[in-house]
Design goal:
Oligomer: single chain
Strand content: 25-35%
Shape: globular
Order of helices and strands: EEEEHEEH
CATH superfamily: YggU-like
Number of helices: 2
Number of strands: 6
Organism: Methylobacterium bullatum
Number of domains: 1
Distance between the termini: 15 Å
Family: Belongs to the UPF0235 family.
Radius of gyration: 13 Å
CATH topology: Conserved Hypothetical Protein Mth637, Chain: A
Protein name: UPF0235 protein OICFNHDK_1817
InterPro entries: DUF167, YggU-like_sf
Largest sheet: 6 strands, mixed
CATH architecture: 2-Layer Sandwich
Helix content: 25-40%
Length: about 110
């Protein structure tokens, strides 16, 4: 079941979707860990990547993992804020309705694997 509207880590825009991600670099594996809630109540997608946080390697790995998981081109994903931070806002380009559907399915799939 998809998360309620208030607890989704993304927002649909005219150009696509803005996705809130909390990234752990230098992990043992690359993938989605599920959703986490910050102290301020904001919900983030918790991602891990095996790449180190050096010279953009973790960001590149994050974009590649999201592109594969959501069937997007890497060029359709860009980091809006948090380039050097653990918490990032990403812009996903494309049809918002399609992206929301893919995100909901991807997040629900991670919850089932846990």
């Amino acid at each position: 079941m998809p998360p309620s509207t208030e607890n989704r880590p993304y927002t649909a825009t005219r150009e696509g979707v803005r996705l809130a991600v909390r990234l752990t670099a230098r992990a043992s594996r690359t993938g989605l860990d599920g959703l986490v809630e910050g102290a301020d109540g904001r919900v983030w997608v918790q991602m891990r990547v095996a790449a180190p946080p050096v010279e953009g390697a973790a960001n590149t790995a994050l974009i590649a993992a999201l592109a594969e998981a959501l069937d997007l081109r890497r060029s359709d994903i860009r980091i809006v804020t948090g380039d050097t931070a653990r918490q990032k806002i990403l812009a996903l380009g494309g049809d918002p309705a399609s992206l929301v559907s893919r995100l909901d399915a991807w997040i629900a799939g991670a919850a089932k694997r846990r």
